[in-house]
Design a protein that fits this description.
- With 215 residues, this protein is of the alpha+beta class.
- The protein is built from 7 helices and 7 strands.
- The strands form 2 sheets. Strands 2-4-5-7-6 form a 5-stranded mixed sheet.
- Strand 6 and strand 7 form a beta hairpin.
- Helix 2 packs antiparallel against helix 3 and helix 6 packs across helix 7.
- The protein is globular and about 55 Å long.
Amino acid sequence: PHFMYNTLETIGMAVEEGEREAVVDMVTLLGRMLRFSVSNLSRSVTVAEEVQHVKDYLTIQKFRFEDRLHFEIAVQLRDEDEGHLYTPKFILQPVVENAIKHGLESRKRLEIHLNVGREFGAQSGEEEIVFRVRDNGPGISSERLLALEQSLKKQEYQLKSSQFGLSNVNLRIVMLHGESYGLQLHSIEKLGTEVVVRIPLSHVPDSGERQEGKA
């Protein structure tokens, strides 16, 4: 709801200032995000779709924060993989949203880097899809980092914690794919944070549920 309100407010300001192209771009991006949210009822989407969704989200935020926000996305997958590998839906936006929320509170210019690739998983013993989200935000103290890591291990949805987005993303991945997968946090206070999201390498949607709805 906050994202929708802020986006509509930004669009309204752009209309008042006569920025026609920016308005068209934001409305197009917002429409695509809504279509992604409501037109596919499956728990899985392709990696390409998930990355496009978070790119749309970041682009809209870029309109809002302008020079205060910079982002880069690097997908290091074979072209045929990106459209045929599957991931749980909505696992990247909460991570990026968290980085923006905390990063812009303490940084005049926030940088976010998303890298997507294949890596060998030490815990799973298999090749995985790994999303790495790095930022130059305030970082996390060692005490807070330990508390967050313990929170990620809780097998219950969290409704009130400021970090509920990360915890719930981790829980969904663990429930779908087991404890070898999920989120890992790396952070140095005052330097930045990296959130690593690990999922199995899969060429089929979860439980064969992929359904194309009508928008």
